[in-house]
Amino acid sequence: MCAKIKQNLNNILGVLFLVLGTAAFFNTLKFAFGRDIWYDEVFSLCFAKKSYGDIVSLTARDVHPPLYYFYLRFVTSIVTGIFGEGSFYAAAKLASCLPWLGLMALAVTYIRKRFGILTAGMFMFLISVMPQIPIYYVEIRMYSFALFLITAHILTADRILSGEGDRKRLFILFFVLGILTAYTQYYACIATAGIYLAVGIISLFQKGDDRKQILIGVTASAVISVIAYLPWLGVIKRQMDNISGMYWIQPLTLRSILGCIKFATLPVVYAGRMPEISAGLLILTVTVILAIYLFASKRAAKKDGLQLFVLMLMPVIVVIAGGFVLSALGTPIFVYRYMVPALGGAWLLVAIAVSEVMNKALERRLGALLYILILPVILAGALNYKGFCDEESKKVYEEAAAMNLVDSIPTGSVIITNFDHVTAVMGFYRPDCEVYLYDAEIDKLLPDMLGSIRDDARDDMLDYFLQSGKEVYFFGSFASREDIVKNWESEGIGAYRRASILIERYWIDVFELHD
């Protein structure tokens, strides 16, 4: 009876974590109704307004494959068709929220049946609040979409390896999820390669027909995937040529490995030394939990433990390794956020290990001691989610003032900026104005995407604009704005400072220019 009560306690904990994860997500939803966007999101929003044919041709000049933009256009078309064009920003952010519902569906079906309610609940808690993840449920980019695809791909591989269901149908699903992921984002494609590699390695330790069936299935899927990706390989070559020597990303070093760990474990919150302390405790706790899990699996002669360890960690390991290799071969093209789609498997492994450790604790009457191990996990999640909410709340507050000013600029005005990110954002906000970048170059794709922006602003053009009776505004970024304004004033062009607003994650001083 006592054991049953304790098992019920684990089930209750699982439901509690599921409720907490769900509550966090629905709280996150309230941040999906603003108009605040940043540079990368401009590309997403522009693609969402294009036809499917234009998306293919334009992404060939971008740095990502087209599937996410197809998905984004599909979702925004449905929502704006129902609620009107005024819902466009919310519709685009909703597209990033929807993959969470897909993860929830996976959790309450396959994960719950395969690993138990505590694992399912813990997974949804982790995937809703842990460092770096919540922001991608409201950012208009492909990371949450790829997170869902890769997690589903991992679980399909687990079903294949565990012998559940019709393997032929599962391998069809395995191929489909893999190729969809490959056409979503290139580092997500690398994560998919990691899943293929993990399944191939694990299959070598299977016996008899299992080994043969899995090896044939994974090989066939890989070959068909390569064939299905051939039409895009020429595009990738052109994309790499376009960014060669032009990317802003810094070269990777050995310290970058620590940066990867920090990215995935450090709560993003202003709370003194608590984030660092929390991250340290989280790393220690997860290491202990995984070690106990592996030791218990080995002692019980269960191959699942090591098998799941390889399957769920391989995607993120291969992404990091791939980033180092590609950066060493040419232009550095890896940033830490590229890990996000592969973190679903890593946090699922932690959830599985926590559940197994808690169940072992019941058997050995170590419950109270081992339950303490989940406290640093909860602390890291709570701190990070607080930081996320604080930052998003600040954006909502500052957005109101920023949008009031942006919307007040008369149609047909000229907007000068000295930062290409702000040029792109203002070009999207105000397509009815002429937006110029001063003394720098913009991405060559943007003029074709927006049509109203240019990068050839010169001092002699200001006189022409003012003499023609146009309203001229300067959105100045960084310390250089003061030097620019002083230079204009020395040439007889006045600059009246109207406001300081938050645009594209930066504080911008807005000046109204006059003769």
Helix and strand layout, with pairings?
Blueprint: H1 2-29, H2 39-48, H3 52-59, H4 67-83, H5 88-115, H6 117-129, H7 143-162, H8 167-182, H9 186-203, H10 208-243, H11 255-265, H12 274-299, H13 304-329, H14 343-364, H15 367-371, H16 375-408, E1 414-417, H17 420-429, E2 434-438, H18 446-450, E3 453-457, H19 459-467, E4 472-476, H20 480-490, E5 494-503, E6 506-514
Parallel strand pairs: 1-2, 1-4, 2-3
Antiparallel strand pairs: 4-6, 5-6
Helix pairs in contact: 1-6, 1-14, 2-4, 2-17, 4-5, 5-6, 5-7, 6-14, 6-16, 7-8, 7-9, 7-13, 8-9, 8-10, 9-10, 9-13, 12-13, 12-14, 12-16, 13-14
Description:
It is built from 20 helices and six strands. The protein has helices at 2-29, 39-48, 52-59, 67-83, 88-115, 117-129, 143-162, 167-182, 186-203, 208-243, 255-265, 274-299, 304-329, 343-364, 367-371, 375-408, 420-429, 446-450, 459-467, 480-490, and strands at residues 414-417, 434-438, 453-457, 472-476, 494-503, 506-514. Strands 3-2-1-4-6-5 form a six-stranded mixed β-sheet, sandwiched between helices. α5 (88-115) runs parallel beside α7, α7 (143-162) packs across α13 (304-329) and α12 (274-299) crosses α16 (375-408).
